[in-house]
Model the fold of this input.
Amino acid sequence: MGVERTLPTPEAADLLELVRDLVDKEVRPRAAPGEESAAFPRDLFALLGEAGLLSLPYPAEYGGGDQPYEVYLQVVEELAAGWLAVGLGLSVHTLACYPVASFGSAEQKERLLPDMLGGRLLGAYCLSEAHSGSDAAALATRAARTGTGYRIDGAKSWITHGGVADFYTLFARTGAPDSGAGGIGCLHVPAETAGVAADAPERKMGMSASPTAAVRFDGAEVGADALIGEEDKGFAIALSALDSGRLGIAACAVGVARAALDAAVGYAAERSQFGRPIIEHQGLSFLLADMATQVEAARELYLAAARRRDAGRPFAKQAAMAKLFATDTAMKAATDAVQVLGGAGYTRDFPVERFMREAKVLQIVEGTNQIQRMVIGRHLAREEQAG
Done:
């Protein structure tokens, strides 16, 4: 089913039409076979780059699309509705570009952003570690000063695009081992740097075509110009990036939920039992009505947060709310879609079982939904104390 969208400009409407056409012709037909073969669709990301879709929320002077987040996120949703590996990949690449675009020096922006935003380079975001997942400030990967820059030692876990990325946006300890959040730096590390290597991809429940791997840094040396922002001030960059990244995950979740709803409605309209289409049975129609309502609500929640971001207003609480609600909605919608299809839904002949496996990861990545509740709760407490 189509989505009735309210977009800020006619150009944005044309952009969404282009994306829908690309999804119908190039993305959705490859989703099921791509997941079966677990082959990373790098050519699709090159196509997204050629279409200008890897650069949407960034400045035109560096090759960006100059689009507001309100528009960019709806593009992510459309791509994720066709194939989550592609929608999530766009969101992760945008996240990996964010530190340079927002905190980099003029020289770094001029040197790095054109290739990053033009699709010639694909990025990955390296924050999580095996023993510091949700407690990101406890990371142990070390970036020690040398005479010319930094020597990096350590390992990052659960890295989307690990092993296929061209650059890693890395958060590592530049301060003392016990310096906590106050001793973390952000660095741009090209994947071909000596001493950088990725393990074999994780064997995941879903998203098989999107490689997730540990990335190891064994004496990897980069120049001083690899540091983004101030030394020891990188944790604030990480948190700022994640606020925006959570909106990308929310948009992905709405895409998956919408795809599950469309599959369930289509099947229910065609499948007959007791002499009429099952969509006409009240129990099922009510289930579909709830799914449709939740999808619409999730979309409006991420759009409201995006509009706050575009207006320069605080949006961290709203981003956490959008990520929490949208990903829970995706999980419920995908599970209910399997139920609507019955036994057929449990087979790989229909896409809803894949949606169910894919939706689960969205409740985990870029801050688990338990962490989102903590973030929201802390904001509420601060607001109450502020009166």
Summary: The chain has ten helices and ten strands. The radius of gyration is 21 Å. Residues 194 and 220 are 6 Å apart (CA to CA). The chain has a mean pLDDT of 95.
